[in-house]
Amino acid sequence: MKDITPTDGRGFLEYAPAPESQAILHLKDSYGLFIDGEFRDGSGGSFQTISPATEKKIAEIAIADSADVDLAVAAARRAHTKVWSKLSGADRGKYLFRIARLVQERARELAVAESLDNGKPIKESRDVDVPLVAAWFFYYAGWADKLDYAGLGANPRSLGVAAQVIPWNFPLLMLAWKIAPALAAGNTVVLKPAETTPLSALLFAEILQQADLPPGVVNIVTGAGETGATLVRHPDVDKVAFTGSTGVGREIAKAVAGSHKKVTLELGGKAANIVFDDAPIDQAVEGIVNGIFFNQGHVCCAGSRLLVQENIHDEVVDRLKQRLSTLRLGDPLDKNTDIGAINSREQLERIRALSDIGEQEGAERWSAPCDIPESGFWFAPTIFTNVTTSSRIAREEIFGPVLSVLTFRTPAEAIAKANNTPYGLSAGIWSDKGSKILAVADQLRAGVIWANTFNRFDPASPFGGYKESGYGREGGRHGLAAYLKGASA
Amino acid sequence: MSRLTIPKTYKLYIGGKFPRSESGRTYEVSSAEGRFLANASLASRKDARDAVVAARGAVAGWSGATAYNRGQVLYRVAEVLEGRRAQFVDEISSSEGVTAAVAGRQVDEAIDAWVWYAGWADKFAQVAGAGNPVAGPYFNLSVPEPTGVVAVVAPQGAGSLAGLVEAVAPALVAGNTVVVVASERFPLSAISLAEVLATSDLPAGVVNVLTGSPAEIAPWLASHADVNALDLLGAGELDWVDLEVVAADTLKRVLRPEPGLPGRALDRILAFTETKTVWHTKSTI
Asked: What beta strand segments (E) does B20-158 contain?
């Protein structure tokens, strides 16, 4: 095979900068809380949201304290009782269709805002995140007047007020996963975006105003973990939906114990990506790269443990290194960028710390040769080989562009190693043999399994974990049912 | 001259065997009028752990059996229970203090519940699964799979046999294995049911029955890292909020208590399933 490894980290396929213009954004200097259909000041002070690629301030964001959360929950309760639960399913659906169309109309603006605030490459926010946001609203819009077919019998009812707390890795997409099914089922919402990525949710609030959504149906309260904790513990909340770390998920499960609240938790993962020796290697290499380096590895279902059959280990690792050497790391707004910025200094420190531990525990570290910008938070795509199953980089979620490579000899060994984790969110299988894929898929204890592909998402496809990756599903009919109760309940 | 009867020793049911409690403890079970009926085993923490080990060991075989096979085994339980109907009627009337007719209706409900759930084994996945029309060249299928080991606090009041069956049978349908803490006051029919299960082709360890104090045993099951789900159905009189809090440490699936008997419901089958979604590429041809 021809050696295409660049010697200086560039060389091969050099591109001129192609930055997406920020002129499409019309940001305000500061953003308040979105409560009862209006932006208003928060009582808990404010914080700055910054671009992780430059560390420059984007806007000042209000912090919701417990009084603000009270107001937001009260607004959602009022809207549920007086407006949203009385509206016909068809009309709820029409609002959701409007929102889907407005997202499409303002897609480029949303993508730029997302990449600016989150640090993800514009090609991902433009081609993955924002199109899926529109698709999610479009899908659930159609469910709103068909709830009798959601699997809960005739005349299912909404739960009431949903408290939703979302992470920073897919800010607007996670908002859509939460809000679209909740509203379709007739619930109203108080949503808290992540502290480091509030921007796209606030632009989304403007979209809700353009859609003329009745006040209080969706309320957005910004702030840090404390705001989220106050929200999920609020006694007048009927449903809690959380995506984030397993640690916080545990705290939420404890906080709602003994209450009437229904809970959906989408938590961490340490997915195995299993490559058999009969796999289409070129596709598998692309899939491995997509599995762990998509979105800088800030993906709960990332394929962070590569399980490769022993006899093809060297070939796969060599090809991976060659491929990673061609990835372009840098300005998230550049259309040629493959690897953007790490979302925050805190996350960068965690990735660095766990990677150092990997080295200390005897694994062999290789990082792609790429220039690291001077300001901002960056981490070069990194592979660890000679990783043992007990190593912390094989057990703990790193949530960054770091791949741990392990080997296996037989399918049974691959299955045992893949399942040897308290997590169970996702897994990948690469083989040209369909019967083997189906047999292995049967044995894997994970909620989403990708065969000869990875990191695919669709509003029609249920997503969620086994074991300590959480419970409940988002997407599809299952995701709708998570916001409903049967008529007799 | 009347014949002297042979009373039964009631023990635990763990891993297909009937051991006494490793603690050597028993407690007295009396009839509604206060007459001595038996010394039931007072299960300990160690017994609970042994039961979890047995249940975990049985998961692969039971969940790996075909749905048709699981359905036949559950139906077989109904057959064997029907054959021992008179024994259960006697046991329930003396322990719960009800007439033979009332006890008979309870046994009938227990038998019919096994039949009802047996029939779901090869159907619930069709109702709860889905073929998903994703926007791309992928085959995409969602199927419900068993959660794993389910710990159950059985209903504690009268109707002990029907309550136990309605608590345990739905968890078995999908291929889960069960550790159940029987009614503290009415434990005898639970152990007699274990004898039915042991002779119904149900593999050892699929159901494990503990008698004793739910308040003592349930916390160990709630905190056990190898238990996947906790059914607090009959835990309404316990400090069940604490059990739910402890269960959150390992993110167990928890069903909160319900008054009375649960009845039959598809929801109870689905409560202990996990939806697995498999994507597979389609080639371009």
From this structure: 26-30, 36-41, 130-131, 138-146, 149-153
pLDDT at A14: 75
Catalytic residues of A: 266, 300
Q: Please say if the pLDDT value at position A145 is more than 60.
A: yes
How long is chain A?
489
Which of A254, A447, A458 lies closest to B274 in CB terms?
A447
Among B280, B283, B284, which would you mutate to test the A interface (most chain A Cβ atoms within 10 Å of its Cβ)? B280
Asked if the Cβ–Cβ distance from B134 to A246 is below 8 Å, we say no
Q: What's the confidence (pLDDT) of residue A1?
A: 43
Mean pLDDT for B46-68 is 98
**Above 50 in pLDDT, residue A141?**
yes
Chain B: residue whose CA lies nearest to A448? B277
Three-state DSSP state, A156: coil
- Is the confidence at residue B184, as pLDDT, over 60? yes
Contact A25, A51 (CB under 8 A): no
Q: Say what the alpha-carbon torsion angle B185, B189, B194, B198 is, to the nearest 10 degrees.
A: 170
pTM: 0.96
Three-state helix/strand/coil letters over A223-260:
CCHHHHHHHHHCCCCCEEEEECCHHHHHHHHHHCCCCC
Task: Give A237-279 pLDDT, tens digit per residue.
Answer: 999 999 999 999 999 999 999 999 999 999 999 999 999 999 9
Find chain A residues with C-beta within 8 A of B250's C-beta. 422, 468
Distance from CA of A200 to the nearest CA of B (A): 25
CA distance A17 to A9: 16
ipTM: 0.95
CB contact under 8 A, A452 and B280: yes
